[in-house]
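Table 4 source record.
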Amino acid sequence: MMTEKENNVKHFLDLIKKSRKGKFKIYIGMSAGVGKTYRMLQEAHTLMRNGIDVKVGYIETHNRKETHDLLEGLPIIPRRKLFYKGKELEEFDLQAVISLRPEIVIVDELAHTNIEGSKNDKRWQDVMEILDAGINVISAVNIQHIESLNEEIKQITGVEVKERIPDSVLQQADEVVNIDLTADELITRLKEGKIYTAEKVPTALNNFFTSGNILQLRELALKEVASQVVRKVETEVTSRSVTALKPNKFMACISSNAQTSKNVIRKTARLASYYNSPWVLLYVQTPKESMDKIALDKQRHLINNFKLATELGGEIIRVESAHVSRTIMEVAEQRQ
């Protein structure tokens, strides 16, 4: 009888056989240290034993011995070297992966920001190119890197995460696997030095890795994976139905207030994602906020919010009107 891990690998192989475009699998966790990278490398060994051409494109072991030991025996694509601000740095080699065309490539740190001078700004954009080239990808990310959860994560941890991925990246995954640990198990790993070096442990325990934080992050991770499963099932059922159900629709309405607008955008995107529904962003531009009157900082915030909404899958609607409430009602009726 196959173990759960072996069943997981077999399911991913079955997906690969059914498509020309690369298949995408993401391991997600509530925080660093739960074992995402370790699990990816375990899967790579299982795939190799099954005769699959799998290569390691990029792995970050964070000097964890157990993880580093698993690299032994796996074919690794050398990193690209480049100079930045007088220093030689290493980066994931996108072109090497596309040239070598392995069946499956392991790419860690999905939310990573590429070094200046790279083809793409973000690693998730590299992964999208690899998938379009017909190469299958296994990657990993923490829950705090999901764009629409940014404000919620900040409220829980007190930290604003700078490196984030659009929710649409997660939605494109063919499989999302949650690597789960209890709060006690994660804290034990931290104290044993399996996550950070000894000098960093006390600070981590008193800040990010408190039991309260871990429990809330764990809940977010579990909810996210559950919603991904529901979305996949609903999409498949709808595609097979003769008469598709009318989807829910969401509309976010914003002003030029920068912070309030960001919260509205992210919460609407979360709802739309949960219900697998389209959503729009409406900005009613009043005469006092016309292009020749609006303050430059407000104009900049608006542009950034439009960009955020687009990244989260929203459609932008911009209407000039002196009657905000009436315009909102009119647009809502038109878009039903």
